Amino acid sequence: MTYLLNVVILIEINCLLAIGFNLILGYGGLLSVAHPMFYAMGAYASALLTLRLGIPIWAAIPSAAIVAAVASIGLSLSALRVSGDYLVIVSLGAQLGVLLVFKNIELTGAASGLGGIPSAFDGAARAPIHAVLLAVVVLAVTLAVRRLMRGAYGRAITAMRNDEEAFAALGRNPRRIKIAIFAAGCGLAGLAGGFYAHYFQFVTPEQFDLFGTTALLTMVVVGGTATVAGPLVGAALMTALPQAIGFLDLPVAAMAPLQGTVFTSLVLLFLFVRPQGLLGGRRAGGGVEAWVGRPPISP
Amino acid sequence: MALLLQGALEFARAAEPCDRPTKFGVADPLTGPNALFGKDQIEAVRWAVEDINAKGGVDGCKLEAVVIDNQARPELGIEAANRFIDVDKAPVFLTAFSSVVRAVAPVANRTKTLMLSIGANSPSIAKLGDYVYTTAPLSDVEMKALGPYIVDKLGKRRAAILYVNNETGIDGSRVLKRAFEQAGGSVVLDESYEPDQTDFTGLILKVRVADPDVIHIHGIVADTTALISQIRQLGIKTQITSYQNAFNQQMVQQLGPAAEGLVVTALAPTAEENPAVASYVARWKRDEGREPNGLPYTQYFYDAPYIVTELFRYVREHKMPETGESMRTALLTIRTFPQPLTNAVTFKDDHTVEKPVYFWQVRDGKFQFLGSTAQH
Amino acid sequence: MLQPEIILQLVWTGLANASYACLFAVAFALVLRVNKVWNFGQAGQMLIAYSAMFIVLRWWHGSMIVAVSAGLAATVAASLAIEQFGFRVLRRRRASTLSYFILTLVLSQLIVFVGELVFGTEPTTLTDSIVAPAFALGPIIVNVWDCEALAATVALLLLLYLVLMLSPAGQNMTAVADNAALAELYGIDPNRSYRMSMALSAIFITMGMLLLGTKTATVPSTPLQQYLIASVVATILAGVGNVFSAGFAAFALGLLQSFSILIVASRWQPLVVYGVLAITILLFPRGVGGWQFRLPAAGRLAPGSARAETAR
B156 lies in which domain range? Predict the structure, then answer.
């Protein structure tokens, strides 16, 4: 039972990550490969707040989210000064560099990471309680995003995404919106990190490497960018599928790269064939679809 | 080597599956940077299970190993442990690599499942909880013996310690430094490097300036190889020592003359001391055409299923419920288990294991036995 | 630590080890200049080159010539495929740079995973022994690999220079790089130039991997995790559009990393690259040479890139 619930909890954490990533990619039109790094930042921050400063967990996790969001502003401010595309480079450097720092300083436990992170609940009902709690959080976040996107701010975001030049000409500031979206997305990653740290009680730098971005890309592109439910579907599929594959009698050593091959092939397939993702509809302005462009109408 | 390892391994006919599952879990890296060790370790486990079942298994019941690839990553280790406990209902499982062991310990303790750590050598493992035991000595045993050995037997008193920046490197080098200083030596340089570093010129030049008479390297495989070759290339002829990880014939071959004189420690007995080891190595050469990566580690992995068999036997004999709790009771009651390839192991109350340390040196491209602490 | 022979040794080894970094940076910068794409797929190309040579040398025990030819053939073919079926399709659809990023990054990751499936994840080298014969040259130790690596790099850079300056195809490439639409008006086919630049970059990548694989052990993910970022940083340092400067920037980065040992512990050395990136972003976002960091998408302007500049 715990095993199944662990999978559910992982799905829920991945949902938070995917929603955040989707905000940045699908709505903001920015690609950041540093999402695993903000996830790590949240995990480490929350762990350190509870371990070193004795802050209670219910306060540490949101604080960790805020830490990640604030840190992201530093990143986006410097990169977006130049252009949105520059953010890719900057985030690549940040992802690799910051994790290297985590790996080397005593504060974060260096290469050994942090263990013995306190858990919010103990005892036999631990897994179900966490599963329910996280479900509530995911639901709340999803509803918040939906509300946001349907409101005035959401319309502004859509307008910016559809035609940034016109948007700027109308006197709006796209950069500010992008920074805000980026902060929200990274904050969500930090939140996910906090939950991860206090459930699994152990964080090491290697858990948050660059390849996490592939998984996120898969979840978001396959589920459907710029849709509210897309990332959820993507997260559920991409977390549950490997578990299911794990039960087939495949050669054990081939499973990890096989999963990776399937994920990346899926992203490429969807990118070219169905950029709106599984859930993206025919509505115009569907995230990646807008950026993958359309086949020319010529003969 | 088209090894198809499946979720449950198939075994010889001598043992039949009986009405009670006799399963234990094994999680090790079959992919990822440590796969070269993990794959051979799993092979050793597979052989042991085969051999045990050929002799009747656990009182006629077929012993089964459930194998999961954890890539030596903590979060996958936790997942694997949960699968063993919830899905396979195994009361005991084996795992390795310090970071994984540390991550999985809370799970083992919470669910009262017995976890046997094999070859992971961080000294912190002894303090990870009631349900975590190691079957192999931790790094402090090796390094505590190497320190005085370098001073007394090799006659060196100025050491440069270079170690890889991970748990193994950090812990191992720390213990060595203390042991070396206690034996009367002084550490003139103590520096770590990143695991994927390839150019060590700067570091080696620092070593040259520090002018040690012995260089100890506590790394993994590719970095140790690169370091040793670059040290020799830069004209430094100082004595080099390393730990059990460097007891690696393939690495010696790759290094060629650069490997001459290298002194390493090992924690598993030699073929001279234990004839079963000779036939084990011969089996490797026959089936795989080479020696295993990390031979001493594989010896411990081979021996672990024998401990598991004894535990099951004890629990069933005494009609105890087949839980981790019973397994642990059995472990602490039996205490000493004869082991085919690593001689006997005794589990102490402080969760540590003491074994003699063996010293080897590369001469003419091959490892020659120098001596062991058992002879003192 | 500041004795002359140590400094000289650091210079020599730093330069020699930066040789393949230079080749990778030039390849990356070339594709950026001509195709206007940040080709993160380069990590995948690097792995393909390595794999082809590895199969010939280690599985089939072939000769070095056959291996290099196989590597070149495989990488050039793959590069052309990426241009033809990847970049060209996106270009026709007027896709934004975002999709190029996703495409190239995911493609590299796919190739890495396939590499892991085929070759496993154990560190490998192209040759059995990575210990080359060494000799003393005055106060420093020089080994044969160092000399070969530097010679090969210089030769390739010269070759590229000649091709770009003197050959019609090279001159066309420069024209397309400067203004593709204008070049087309003059009768130059941009697609040929795009293919040519990918093929040239494939050559540089293959030779770079040959050097890398005979020097140190790698796993399939090494190009993506380690070497790609260095090429990117060198390109940014040099300023977008400066191909040869990117090569020199790679050498400079290599020397910087080499000399950093005088100040920091060995384990902090990789951080030098990221530190340089951080400083460049903050102080020289348009490159040290003052070039414009702008990324016009091939064809019409697409949402995102250049507009972000006007929207400031």
Answer: 140-266+357-375
